[in-house]
Amino acid sequence: MIERKPQPAKAISTEALATGAELYPIFRRHVPLDGSISARVIAEVSAASGLSARQVRRLAAKFRANPVATSLAPTPRGPRIGSHRIADPVRAAIERLTHEIFLKKPPPSAALAAREIHGLLLAEDGEFRFSPGVVPSERTLIRLIGEISEPQRAKSSMGSKQRSAHEPHPGEYRSEGLLDLVQMDHTRADVILVDSTHREELARPWITLLVEVWTRGILGFYVSFGDPSIFRCGRAVANALLPKEPLLEELGVDVSYPMHGQFHRLHADHAAPHRAESFRRACLANGIDPDIRPRGPAHFGGHIERLIGTMVGRMCLLPGATGGNVTQRDGYDAGKAAAMTLAEFERWLLLQIAIYHNTPHKGLGGQCPAQAWKIAVSGHLPLVPACLDVEHLTRQFLPVRQRTVQAYGVQILHRRYWHPVLAHRIGQQITVYHDERTLQEVYAEIDGQFVVLPMVGHYPDVSEPEWEAERQRLRREGSAFQADGAQAATARYIEAARREVVAARQRTASSRQERKRREQEGVSHSPQTKGRIERAEVRWLPAADLPQDDWLKWRK
User: Quick one: 181-377 is in which CATH superfamily?
Assistant: First the structure.
């Protein structure tokens, strides 16, 4: 069953309203609003208005239900808007074909769907074979498609983000106060960055943003070339919790960025890093409720989605901007125009955040996020605990692995780590946190504290992605060497070794059989005849005494 939009009533013309206004004084004077209407009243109204008694009774009923002049205006003529004179079998066939052809992903245009439906209804060798007289025109079919309700059309033919604007969202989504609700999401920036050494094209970075819903301030952010992960989500949350002054000083940016603090609820989408057990445990350990929003509809994250759209829109000012679609990049080489490094982009982003904080926001009634934050924090409790251990906090949001302590320590991806504190925990399972930016150490959680486990052996001081990339490069080189003759040579060597083994087995078996034959019989009741084999003496004759010695001569 197709849900259709409710059809509006026909508009009453000015002439009809004027007629109702003329009749209104008469009905208001003679027609009572309660009780019954006598025949005398009907006659008086009929004489004053010139209407028949039947018309007076009909208009009187409408007037008593709604005593205004509009009730007395003549009803517009013609069929009711939205009505169709279509036979029930044809209507059922149209709804079925509309489901199959139009209400799907991706949907065709209404005109194309109408033409397809019209042809299938009339096809002589088709399923329906209706006569042309009962099948509505293509224009009528387009009108029928246009009457489908927006929620049904959105649910059947749109993705979650697109259909959110076409579905009802009753109720209110709000924060209860400062630092009560924070939304987080990731996006790939619409700009290509370059490396800091050779200034050559690299890639588009990922940006993670956290918005504080009560003041609309950007509570935290994180920029990286890596895809969203538990590590990067943790970096962004830690950035939101901690003051920004050390970061601003390191980057050399002179802006006011007071937004930080321990918040209560974190809303994020249904991505795997947000649902990871280690990330949720780190949030709960810091008093944050990781309230992952329902799967699908994007309106639950409307504040962060709008903020991301605002920040990404400003990137069109940058060299190397890719634009939002292919049309904007037509004839433009974004990679060749790229000029900013990751650090330079972070400084630019901080300036844009400062601009955003000092721009009036419609959701705040025209106030700026910086102004709303200043008002909200006045008289507020300390934003973060005074005894907050920054190092402990940042390590809590690192990716985590469960490892059993061995005699050599713990092993992570072919690398071993050891600390004397592990000597008494051999055979015990512990929780190990690792920072993918370095291979030199990991952090074991023991008795509620982090113990640094240094690496055993010598490894370069590189990040884990760099190390894995180098390992993959070596594996690719090994595969190429195998394909370039090594594999065939190995096959030959294997076959030769197998032949050597088979020959050795045959020689060993033959030797064993020969030894068996040379061994004596075992002791028995029948005495063994002892003696020796008589061997005939060999007598050699001179060559001259041999008969027919011509076989020793050369023959021509």
Answer: Ribonuclease H-like superfamily/Ribonuclease H (3.30.420.10)
